[in-house]
UniProtKB/TrEMBL annotation:
This is Pyruvate kinase. Gene3D superfamilies: Phosphoenolpyruvate-binding domains, PK beta-barrel domain-like, Pyruvate kinase, C-terminal domain. It comes from the Eukaryota. The lineage of its organism: Eukaryota, Viridiplantae, Streptophyta, Embryophyta, Tracheophyta. Pathway: Carbohydrate degradation; glycolysis; pyruvate from D-glyceraldehyde 3-phosphate: step 5/5. It comes from Rubroshorea leprosula.
């Protein structure tokens, strides 16, 4: 429970009216404060780490875990309440209910990412997804306006604040790729076998003619040749180029299917992908940089970069983020979706904070039959290098239209869970499909079932986990986590507890994929959200000290009071601050 601390007004009201100047200095003292402004503008408190949002009706701010500041804006002053939350524990209501009802073993270890689109952008729809297990909401800057995305971010924040969730936000950049334009307002169009379609770079002011597709790349008609094969969305629909007439390219449909707005286009010649053009393009386009500025200003948790070719671009982006947003802990996710990204895989993953196997575009660049082995390679390498990995695209594609998945889709999801990927992602299924919640439930249920089966069969795989630490202290942390996870399996403990300020020790434990859940206690809401992408972690926000004894006592009493643990449960605890392993029964 929060309690008011300082800055109390003489009338004992929990609010204190402060001049703007004082508030500005308050915000300087707490550099990670996020400020949500009401309908009024409030430029005096804008600082590099504050975030002005014209849609929220209250001022809310959270510091590094010690204090919560809330208030209401008046014409030229702010009513502020400073609260101590030293006695509170933040965990979402769904996890709390699951732990209470089914105990530790029932918790899902595989995390779920949902792409938010027209089917899921409302507050109630987002809430249903959060209740259904969404850990990360992905916004794809390929679609929609920044204003649209801003509203989604604001709703997810409100959901977290009001309902206790820790749904993280991942912003995915568009990247430099050739894609189709809008379909004249239609949500999709069907291309039938043998039909002739026109792909054009012209602008059509008075409506799009029938069977015409706009292409975003001016050099398209010059670059393609008659006889080339044109793949939409990595082969969901195929065409053959039959004729070039100025800016128009006539194509015959050879594999029918559904065309979606802004779908990606690749062209193949003599059985090989035509790559010259892609090699000339920057990985991060000028529009992407504007989107990245938007993401930084909005304080998103992850930025996913499309068509990464080398580690250089990741390093470049990370230094840009560090310069633009001091103290920011935005994580950079490399999307593995091109031949170059596979060629330079290890250096890319080492440079990134995580990776996504973006099978949609990857399947357009390498033969489809090579996608499963590429997925396995990326998942394994990420685990070895201690980076979270997301398996994405077409996991439940048929559920865009139908309420049940195909058996093959369930097998595909099971395989990703069996590979112990950190997270699975829904794309069109949640963005524009007819059954977003059902699709999420399928991911949740399949994950739970496969994880249980894996544990029942005691299939601990002996994956070699190389040392990833660069210092002696890092190596000690790694050894502690490896040993703690092994002990947890051998002693069949109920849960691992980790007290971590940066999240690093939690990720080292997650890398071991232990048999029991990992309760990760961290002091900031941003680290709590970031940990929500990682396998097996149940992130809590809690203020804690360097004294493990008192941390444990406090945690036990808070968790017991909320019915999430009980006396006698066996726990192993490790921490960032104290390099030790403690095994104990909950008193
Ligand atoms: N913000 C949005 N507004 C409108 N439609 C969207 C939005 N986000 C996604 N969609 C729809 O959902 C579909 C699937 O989403 P997804 O994010 O996978 O897009 P994509 O075009 O395949 O891009 P990528 O290759 O980056 O995944 C899109 O083709 C689009 O029709
Ligand atoms: C997710 C994505 O960008 C892809 O699969 O191509």
């Amino acid at each position: 429970m929060s309690q008011s601390l300082q800055f109390l007004t003489p009338s004992r009201s929990p609010y204190l009216t402060l001049p703007k100047q004082t508030v500005t200095s308050l915000y300087r003292r707490f550099p990670v404060i996020k400020l949500l402004i009401g309908k009024h503008s409030f430029p005096a408190v804008k600082s590099s780490s504050s975030d002005l949002d014209a849609t929220s009706s209250k001022v809310g701010a959270v510091d590094n875990g010690q204090t919560v500041v809330t208030g209401v804006l008046s014409a030229d002053s702010v009513a502020v309440r400073v609260q101590s939350d030293s006695g509170s524990l933040e965990v979402d209501t769904v996890t709390e209910a699951e732990l209470k009802e089914n105990g530790f073993r029932s918790t899902r270890r595989t995390k779920l990412v949902c792409t938010i689109g027209p089917a899921t952008c409302g507050f109630e729809q987002l809430e249903s997804l959060a209740v259904g297990g969404m850990n990360v909401a992905r916004i794809n800057m390929c679609h929609g306006t920044r204003e649209w995305h801003r509203r989604v971010i604001e709703r997810v924040r409100r959901l977290n604040e009001e309902k206790g969730f820790a749904v993280a936000i991942m912003m995915d950049t568009e990247g430099s790729e050739i894609h189709m334009g809008e379909l004249g307002g239609a949500p999709s169009a069907k291309a039938e076998d043998g039909e002739i379609w026109t792909f054009s770079v012209r602008a059509f002011d008075s409506g799009l003619p029938e069977r015409t597709i706009i292409v975003n790349y001016d050099g398209f008609a010059e670059d393609v040749k008659v006889g080339d094969e044109l793949l939409v969305d990595g082969g969901m629909v195929r065409f053959e180029v039959t004729e070039k007439i100025g800016p128009d390219v006539k194509c015959r449909c050879t594999d029918p299917g559904l065309l979606l707005p802004r779908a990606n286009l690749t062209f193949w010649r003599d059985g090989s992908l035509v790559r010259e053009r892609n090699a000339m393009l920057p990985t991060i386009s000028s529009k992407d940089w504007l989107d990245i500025d938007f993401g930084i200003a909005e304080g998103v948790d992850f930025i996913a970069i499309s068509f990464v070719k080398s580690a250089e671009v990741i390093n470049h982006l990370k230094s840009y983020i560090a310069a633009r947003a001091r103290d920011s802990d935005i994580a950079v996710i490399a999307k593995i979706e091109s031949i170059d990204s596979l060629k330079n895989l290890e250096e890319i993953i080492r440079a990134s904070d995580g990776a996504m196997v973006a099978r949609g575009d990857l399947g357009a660049q390498i033969p489809l039959e090579q996608v499963p082995s590429a997925q396995q390679r990326v998942v394994k390498l990420c685990r070895q290098l201690n980076k979270p990995v997301i398996v994405a695209s077409q996991l439940l594609e048929s559920m865009i239209e139908y309420p049940t998945p195909t058996r093959a889709e369930v097998a595909d999801v099971s395989e990703a869970v069996r590979q112990r990927a950190d997270a699975l992602m829904l794309s069109g299924e949640s963005a524009m499909g007819q059954y977003p919640e059902k699709a999420l439930a399928v991911l949740r249920n399949v994950s739970l079932r496969i994880e249980r089966w894996w544990r029942e069969e005691k299939r601990y795989e002996a994956m070699e986990l190389p040392d990833v630490g660069t210092s002696f202290a890092d190596s000690i942390s790694e050894e502690i986590c490896n040993s703690a996870a092994k002990m947890a399996n051998n002693l069949e403990v109920d849960a691992l507890f980790v007290y971590t300020k940066t999240g690093h020790m939690a990720s080292l434990l997650s890398r071991c994929r232990p048999d029991c859940p990992i309760f990760a206690f961290t002091t900031t809401t941003s680290v709590r959200r970031r940990l929500n992408l990682q396998w097996g972690l149940i992130p809590f926000r809690l203020s804690f000290s360097d004294d493990m004894e008192s941390n444990l006592n406090k945690t036990f009493s808070l968790l017991k009071a909320r019915g999430m643990i009980k006396s006698g449960d066996l726990v192993i605890a490790v921490s960032d601050m104290l390099q030790s392993i403690q095994v104990m029964n909950v008193p």
